[in-house]
Amino acid sequence: MASDPTAGGAPADTPVEPSDSSLDIPPKPENAAELQQLVEQLQAEKADLLDKQLRALAEAQNVRRRAQQDVEKERKFGIERFARDVLSVADNLGRALSALPADLESIEPALRNVIVGIQATDRELQAVLERHGVTRVEALGQPFNADFHQAMMEIEDPTVPTGTIVQEMIPGYLIAGRLLRAAMVAVSKGGPIGRPTVRPPSNEN
């Protein structure tokens, strides 16, 4: 007689009940004290999870804000190196124009047309720089401000307050309100006692 394959043990298709140790379920409380303890434990776990969720949300917001700030900073100042190189072109044009005689009518028409073209090029270059946030530092006639000006010499001039910029050798520039290059200037001395109020250069784009 054939032996019963299920003899001596549980049937093959009988599900195995999981042991209590395999489940993360607290044991069933047997009295009010244990019930109160279980409620407090669950409330503490809930508070901990809520705290972790709030921290994660705050960290995500910080990461997003830092990323936005980095993008904005790159947009404003990413062209700084290029702008510095372009300033040498503007300087050369400025020096060429400053060397011209004041009376252009005395120059022959052909050469005068070339000068007019250089002047137009200089104006267009300044307009392009301004469109990209690069603006000139106010200097001539302004109080000296070490944050925006670099004094190259002092000039005796009793007609203006001491510390006033009376000559600009090389113009200074800002990029998005931040100093790109300080203006090289000459400052007066020998004028009235007391420096005028220092007013930062305009950085309007």
Overview of the molecule:
The structure is a single chain. This protein is α+β, with helices and mostly antiparallel strands and 205 residues long. The chain has helices at residues 32-77, 80-98, 109-131, and strands at 134-136, 149-156, 165-170, 173-175, 178-181, 183-189. The protein has a 3-stranded antiparallel β-sheet with strand order 1-4-5. Strands 2-6-3 form a 3-stranded mixed β-sheet, with no helix packed on it. Helix 2 packs antiparallel against helix 3 (109-131). The chain is elongated. The termini are far apart.
Short overview:
With 205 residues, the protein is α+β, with helices and mostly antiparallel strands. It contains three helices and six strands.
Q: Globular, elongated, flat, extended or rod-shaped: what is the shape?
A: elongated
The span between the termini is 104 Å
Oligomer: single chain
Number of strands: 6
pLDDT averaged residue by residue: 80
Strands in their spatial order, largest beta sheet: 1-4-5
Structural class: alpha+beta
Determine the number of helices (DSSP H or I, runs of at least 4 residues).
3
The share of residues in extended strands comes to: 15-25%
Low-confidence stretches: 196-205
Which characteristics define this entry?
alpha+beta, 3-stranded mixed β-sheet, disordered C terminus
